[in-house]
Specification:
Blueprint: H1 3-17, H2 21-47, E1 63-66, E2 79-82, H3 85-96, H4 106-130
Helix pairs in contact: 2-4
């Protein structure tokens, strides 16, 4: 077998291991769901109040994910964040701080503490989609 045939065989085997966009989308959706739950719990623990905002609701209750990239292109990625810019802006101020607000980095902590849960959810979904290879 020549070098070209060996490379072709290698690429065929490698392509079987790499999921297509639809499968990647399902895998990252599972990870996004895991992170969303952790971020929601962290936000409720740190910043949930008894204030009743009729228009926007609580910041912790408005965390969701989209099964596309930040530009809305379905390339197999998922993005977790707040549904409206009001909550996203407040979350950024609370996380990063301002001149008058001390930062508490709750988003960073949630992201760091969620890594294993995200990877486990994505691994489980990968095995379900690809067949446990």
């Amino acid at each position: 077998m020549g070098l070209e045939d060996q490379l072709q065989s290698f690429m065929e085997r490698a392509n079987k291991l790499v999921p297509n966009t639809e499968t990647k989308s399902k895998i990252t959706k599972a990870g996004a769901e895991a992170y969303k739950n952790r971020l929601r719990a962290q936000t409720k623990a740190k910043h949930y109040s008894s204030h009743k905002d009729e228009k926007y609701g609580h910041m912790a209750d408005n965390i969701d994910y989209v099964n596309s990239n930040i530009d809305g292109v379905n390339d197999g990625t998922s993005v977790v964040g707040w549904n409206n810019r009001y909550h996203a802006m407040n979350a950024r101020f609370l996380n990063d701080g301002t001149r008058k607000i001390q930062p508490d980095h709750f988003v960073d902590v949630a992201r760091r503490n969620s890594r294993e849960a995200i990877l486990q959810a994505e691994k489980d979904e990968y095995e379900k989609q690809v067949g446990g290879k």
